[in-house]
Amino acid sequence: MLLQTSSATPYEIILIGDTGDISLSRPDPVFQMLNAHLSPQQPSAVIFLGDNIYPRGLPPQGNILRKNAEGVLNRHFDALKDYHGDVAFIAGNHDWNKGRDNGLEYIERQDEYLKKLFGKKVLFPKGGCPGPETFDLNDNITVVAIDTQWWMQRGVRSLDSECYDGISSEDDFFERLISILDANIRKHLLVIGHHPVYSYAIHGGKFKLKHHIFPLTIYDQDAWIPLPGLGSLIPLYRRFLGAREDIAHPRYRKLRGKLKEILARYSNLIYAAGHEHNLQYIRKDKNHFIVSGSGSKVKYVVQSGKHLRFGEKSKGFFKMRFETDGSVYLTAWALDTSGRLEKGRLLYESQII
Description:
This protein is of the alpha/beta class. The chain has one domain (about 10-195, about 250-255, about 270-350): Purple Acid Phosphatase, chain A, domain 2, CATH 3.60.21. About 25% of the residues lie in helices and about 20% in strands. It has helices at about 30-35, 65-80, 105-120, 150, 170-185, 210-215, 235-240, 250-265, and strands spanning about 10-15, 45-50, 85-90, 135-140, 140-145, 190, 270-275, 280-285, 285-290, 310, 315-320, 330-335, 345-350. A 7-stranded mixed sheet has the order 4-5-6-7-9-8-10, with helices on one face. The chain has a 6-stranded mixed sheet with strand order 3-2-1-11-12-13, covered by helices on one side. Helix 2 (about 65-80) runs parallel beside helix 3 (about 105-120). The chain is globular. The termini are close together. The model is unreliable at about 1-5 (pLDDT under 50).
């Protein structure tokens, strides 16, 4: 990919996902750490990579979960209300009412609520649409947003003229994606979707011995109920057949297979996702795959893999810095439990482009 001459000022992007389980009773330490990385003198953006509200998105008024869900979105706004830069959200499976048939109305409500909070559109693609939808951060950085949960979703999904002219089928979506990538090939391209294309964690079928003996710890880290032998059925099922949120699931597999095929045509493209509650950087087919889903929860990730450059089970986020010479640096930051480091602990740093 031949990049255009970069702008005169470096640009930073914070990628943070799965922030929907933040504390409402006290200041959230991850958001405090995030704020320490923001400076009025530094052009930047904060991108939330889905699962913005746990456990089931934004319910209707009168629902027992509504007050808590509003509180979570309000905390996101409070953390950034004085922020000078760009803010973007994408949707995750929990935002779509955890994949239930009526999930469309949940994500449409979240879209409207975020617009009211921020005074502008910040959810991409617009609520209930698959994308791809683009927005430029500067003359040399284009973000391409995909609602990957749209592909996994049961029930009603938006399409046709409700979303974008010329898209009336799933094949049209991929043609639009190729057209967008081709049109911006001389820029830095950042594709964002909640679900990873590659993962070295649980949704990617990676389990450890503990999960075979105590399989319920996959869902609750304190569920130490031994089920030796029988317990292996859950990890094996999720690795080879897959729950709807797993890479092995047929719908996920279809989307992933096509994305792998398309993205491999380009070099130095960056794909960022959440979904897995950890931090991963994967280098594959001359491209860069970032998983940054530990904004409020953490889960197991392997420490080594063929294409895995970095993996860590820590609350935190990734930050990218686009320098004026066209180079890009990637850093991973985690909470400092001692409280001494306002910006957190630097876990990883590498020039990726």
